[in-house]
Amino acid sequence: IETWTTISYEITYNLDGGTNASANPATYTIESEAITLADASKTAFRFDGWFDAETGGNKIETIAAGSTGAKTLYAHWTALFTALSVTGMPTKTLYFAGEAFDGAGLTVTATYGDGSQKTVTSYTMDLGSTVCNAGKTVTISYTEDGVTRNATVNGTYYIAAADALTPSPVLLQG
């Protein structure tokens, strides 16, 4: 009588700082059902899938029933947009009622989960199209991949009535 021993094969998960899902097994055998791999997680990153190479490679979603051999899988990630900052001061700080806010002089920077940054220009300002004669904080908003972040523009802005013969500014924000 012959005796068969089922060989257990190891699955190695290279997480690149992430956390593996508890549903992902550490081993499998030729007799295992198909294994659908669960997503890993990593704060400030989107999980792009399991791959058979550290960079590039083929996306692996399942280990088929009847498979053999040790498997090494690599988590691929995309850094998410995590913060928005505004530096500099607007060149223009005196406005007449109804005048459009001018963001010249401001640098708006998006920061990502991996620490990288980029200057953005497609942001919006909460003042709408015109400055009004009321205390208002100027807030910049930027949206990327469905994530919106806000940052406040620091500084002091003044406004005068639109029909003023000489500017008699009123503090808008300080």
Descriptive tags:
single chain, 174 residues, mainly beta, five-stranded mixed beta sheet, three-stranded antiparallel beta sheet, 16 strands, 41% strand, disordered C terminus
By DSSP, the count of extended strands is 16
Poorly predicted tracts of residues: 168-174
The first-to-last residue Cα distance is: 90 Å
Can you write the helix and strand succession as a string?
A: EEEEEEEEEEEEEEEE
The averaged pLDDT comes out at 84
What characterizes the major β-sheet? 5 strands, mixed
* Strand arrangement across the biggest beta sheet: 2-1-7-4-5
Indicate the radius of gyration in whole angstroms.
28 Å
The count of helical stretches stands at 0
Structural class category: mainly beta
Q: Tell me, what's the shape?
A: rod-shaped
Strand fraction equals 35-45%
Helix content: under 10%
What features would you describe in this structure?
Helix content is 0%, strand content 41%. By secondary structure, the chain is mainly β. The chain has a five-stranded mixed beta sheet with strand order 2-1-7-4-5, with no helix packed on it. Strands 8-10-11 form a three-stranded antiparallel beta sheet, with no helix packed on it. β13 and β14 form a beta hairpin. It is rod-shaped and about 100 Å long. The chain starts with 8 loop residues before the first strand and ends with a strand. The model is unreliable at 168-174 (pLDDT under 50).
